[in-house]
């Protein structure tokens, strides 16, 4: 999972278990720990994002992270979906990962590479459906 900013920053966490509220809270802990100000995070309607555990985490960290929910069935509004598509296209075509550990390592390599390419990260906000982020950007990390 990743969080990207219009300034070209990217934060990520690779996990091998199913995406649950516990995984989301771990990501929120890591994300909030990087900043001295509130992070505004745009998320989809996944049940983990709306879970009681995540709501409790947010209530306990009111100055850490604020979630903003996209409308249902609107993945085109989520710039992070472009990150996911980029990741899938960048995975080696000739050498497919043989197991979960190899796939996780390839995924980490992709994210580390993108962290050093802020111009590409900023480009995820260039699509016509995600330009709203540039117009209504409260605070970008």
How would you characterize this protein structure?
The protein is α+β, with helices and mostly antiparallel strands. It is 42% helix and 11% strand. A two-stranded antiparallel sheet has the order 1-2. The protein has a two-stranded parallel ribbon with strand order 3-4. Helix 2 links the parallel strand 3 (39-43) and strand 4. The longest helix is centred in the last third of the chain and has 16 residues, at 100-115. The radius of gyration is 15 Å and the shape is globular.
Keywords:
two-stranded antiparallel sheet; 141 residues; alpha+beta; two-stranded parallel ribbon; 6 helices; 42% helix
What's this model, at a glance?
This protein has 6 helices and 4 strands, in the order ββαβαβαααα. The protein has 141 residues and is of the alpha+beta class. Helix 1 (21-32) runs parallel beside helix 2 (52-60).
